[in-house]
Specification:
The chain is built from seven helices and 14 strands. It has about 210 residues and is an alpha/beta fold. The strands form three sheets. Strands 1-2-3-4-5-6 form a six-stranded mixed β-sheet, with helices on one face. About 45% of the residues are buried.
Length: about 210
């Protein structure tokens, strides 16, 4: 399994294109409509974009969704059940504050919950940054896509609509407890890290 990072949208969110040997591709988060490099990469590598998966519904993660569906109308869109309203509610998505624009998505999508499998990734509920934040774990390759839940030596904010600090710390503890320490973690706003490194960091901070 291979992974390529793209920096999309006004906050230059890390958006990850992941693909397998069958050239089936997953795009995790899509923070903006500046998709030229994404489109070119998919085409030049002969990939098929099958899954569009959102870690949560903030604007710097979903802003490119309508454009993605225009380019790849057959892509399967996934978002947490608790985050459905973020697709149409700019107060929840913070879109006006992040991009200065209104956003609404009325296309098709599938909701997901803890334990679901999306292709080769298992959904892990990690509420806290938002009520329906998810992480995605590929066991074979020990890859975790963590969104805004876990950063390198840091973690997501919990002072936003639907955020909850206690829930976030429980989610971080769950990741550090359940996943192998050599799992590589790809977050939305930092360089990659590992579960082991974050376990040490969070323990030193007295958070787990």
């Amino acid at each position: 399994m291979k992974i390529q990072t793209f920096y999309l949208g006004s906050l230059m969110t890390n958006c990850y294109l992941v693909w397998n040997d069958n050239k089936e591709a997953y795009l995790f988060d899509c923070g903006g409509e500046n998709l030229g490099r994404v489109e070119s990469f998919i085409k030049s590598n002969g990939l098929t974009l099958k899954y569009m998966i959102f870690t949560h519904g903030h604007g710097d993660h979903i802003a490119g969704l309508n454009r993605i569906k225009e380019i790849y109308p057959d892509v399967e869109v996934y978002i947490g059940k608790e985050e459905e309203r973020f697709l149409v509610d700019n107060e929840l998505s913070l879109m006006k504050y992040i991009n200065g624009t209104n956003f609404e998505y009325n296309g098709d999508y599938t909701t997901m919950k803890d334990g679901d499998m999306i292709g080769e990734f298992r959904v892990i509920d990690t509420p806290g940054h938002t009520i329906g934040s998810k992480c995605f774990y590929n066991e074979e390759n020990k890859i975790l896509i963590s969104g805004d839940t876990m950063f390198r030596r840091s973690f997501g904010r919990y002072d936003l609509p639907t955020s909850d600090g206690d829930m976030l710390f429980k989610s971080l503890k769950r990741l550090c407890t359940e996943l192998p320490e050599d799992t590589k973690v790809y977050s939305a706003h930092s360089e990659p890290t590992t579960i082991g490194e974050e376990k040490v960091f969070l323990t030193m901070q007295g958070m787990i």
